[in-house]
Amino acid sequence: MRREDQPVLHVNFEDNSLLPLLFGEHDRNLAKIEQSFDVRVASRGNVLAITGPQEQADAARQTFERLYDRLVADKRKGASAGLAPAEVDAAIRFAGTQANDQVRAISTWRRPVEPRSPRQAAYIDALHDFELVFGLGPAGTGKTYLAVAVAVSMLKAGKVDRIILSRPAVTG
Asked: How many CB atoms lie within 10 A of CB 66?
């Protein structure tokens, strides 16, 4: 199907002053989302027109909305530094998954911590739902970081009195 024959999905944003942050420097985020979902995105004022197959256009829309919501939340807190490339990558990974609608940020004293993949979201849910959770996986995937963030949020909420961090001593 030619691109001209594909449906166009329109997305409206209330605050167009956030759009330069959403699109990124030199429209880098816009191009990355277009490339990731094989869609075409055109911007006019505070409206985005996304052209492409319906499923991919919906995933791109979810990505833009998730990132925009993040910028709105940052603006309310008085911090509008823009989006890090890792945040854009995370939003792309979440698009089109059921976890996208259920993502909950972990509230810590410094800043909210959000999962960057559907697997991390499932891990966070397990940490909230069970007293004992074993996390297995390669180094650098966020197992300890997310576990400590959940522990801090529970301490902050008064659900626990203290945090005891224990790590096994494994020799290679």
From this structure: 19
Question: Which H or E run includes 126?
Answer: helix 118-129
DSSP 67: H
Q: State pLDDT tens for residues 133-158.
A: 988 889 888 899 999 999 999 999 89
- The DSSP-derived string for 95-124 is TTSTHHHH--PBP-SS--B--SSHHHHHHH
Burial code (b: 16+ CB inside 10 Å, e: under 16) for 80-93 equals eeebeeebbebbbb
**What's the CA gap between 115 and 132, in Å, rounded?**
19
Q: What's phi and psi for 140, nearest 5 deg?
A: 85, 10
> Distance between CA 52 and CA 95 in Å, rounded?
15
Amino acid at 155: L
- 159's enclosing H/E stretch is none
